[in-house]
Amino acid sequence: MKYIKLTNLQSFFLLDSISRWDAKRCLANKNNIKLQKCQVKLKKALTVLTFWKFMVTKFCIFATMTAVIILSLSQQVSCAENPFLNEIKTVVLDPGHGGHDSGVQGPAGTLEKSVALGLAQLIAGQQKKNYKVILTRSDDYWIDIPGRTAVANHLKADLFISIHVGGSFLHQAKGITIFYYKELSGHALKTGADSSKPEDASNPQAIWDNIQAGHIASSEALAKIMQNNINSQLKFFQSKIQNADLMVLKGADMPAILIEVGYLSNPGDEKKLQSPEVLSDFAKSICNGIDDYFQNHKR
Ligand SMILES: [Zn+2]
User: Fold this and answer.
1) How far apart are CA 262 and CA 216, in angstroms?
2) Interval between CA 78 and ligand 1 midpoint (Å)
3) Which terminal residue of the chain, N or C, has fewer Cβ atoms less than 10 Å from its own Cβ?
């Protein structure tokens, strides 16, 4: 091994070079440490990011599944058990007479069957948004009494309202009469039917005979509610309630009334019933009566 003798100046430069190299190495080390620290931080950040990505994905899956379960359950309820759907009431309106049976004819030629149908159509038009409203006849044709109540019974209607106009040999007879069923004695009166034909005991509809007996209290309540609404809307008509053994009510298996909206045999009543405004007021009052009944009287 050879030793090189250095001068003081050479020694100085050599030491200086060594110290510079050390300094660079130190700096490199320092940068390396910084890089390592950066890498560690980056790894930590990636780990946190992966963790949150995992959590967000799981949450989305959970939320989607929950939404699907809730939706399917709500659909099952709406199809089978939604109580609000069952709340839609069915009202059957029965315009009296029709076809060959014109009912009463007024001195000016107004026909009962036309007034009854027109009024029923007005009521149906006003109430179709609130209830399922069915007419026993929608045009000028005849239908027998069992056929009229059968419509309501087969639909399991909540209300049955038969609409007629009164007639009397007494021209001074006037005003509105609201009937509800009450068995008096003997045979029931056949309002709206050909009373010359005997009652057919073999008719399958005979099974509905006197079914109204179980609804008399509700029918009476409906008659009173209807009278209150008619009185407040049509102050120029007098109104009264009567009970009668009417066949068209006897076979109805729900609260049922028959309204005679004035007397066509009375020239004053006939003139009022020719007015679209009066008929509209009549329709409104009967609609209010229906609303009032459903709001305040449970079947
Ligand atoms: Zn009639």
Assistant:
1) 24
2) 42
3) N
From ligand 1's centre to the CA of 166, what distance in Å? 6
CB 182 within 8 A of CB 215: no
What is the distance in A from the centroid of ligand 1 to the CA of 45?
A: 89
15 Cα to the center of ligand 1, angstroms: 132
- Separation of CA 50 and ligand 1 centre (Å): 83
235 CA to centre of ligand 1 in angstroms: 23
One-letter amino acid of 54: F
Backbone angles phi, psi at 256, to 5 degrees: -145, 140
DSSP of 124-143, one letter per residue? HHHHTTTSEEEES-SSS---
Stated pTM of the model = 0.66
Phi, psi of 22 (to 5 degrees): -60, -45
Separation of alpha carbons 157 and 92, rounded Å? 6
Question: Taking a C-beta distance cutoff of 8 angstroms, is the pair 273, 115 a contact?
Answer: yes
Q: H or E segment at 227? A: helix 216-233
pLDDT band at 235 (very low <50, low <70, confident <90, very high): confident
Q: How far is the CA of 167 from the centre of ligand 1 (A)?
A: 8
**Range in 30-34, 75-79, 160-164, 275-279 the model is least confident about:** 75-79
d(CA 142, ligand 1 centre) in Å: 12
- What pLDDT score does 62 carry? 62
Mean pLDDT of 120-140: 96
Whole-number Å distance, alpha carbon 161 to ligand 1 midpoint, is 13
Can you point out the beta strands (E) in 151-255? 159-166, 176-181, 239-244
The Cα 191–Cα 204 span in angstroms is 20
Is residue 94 within a helix (H) or strand (E), and if so which, with residue range? Answer: strand 90-95
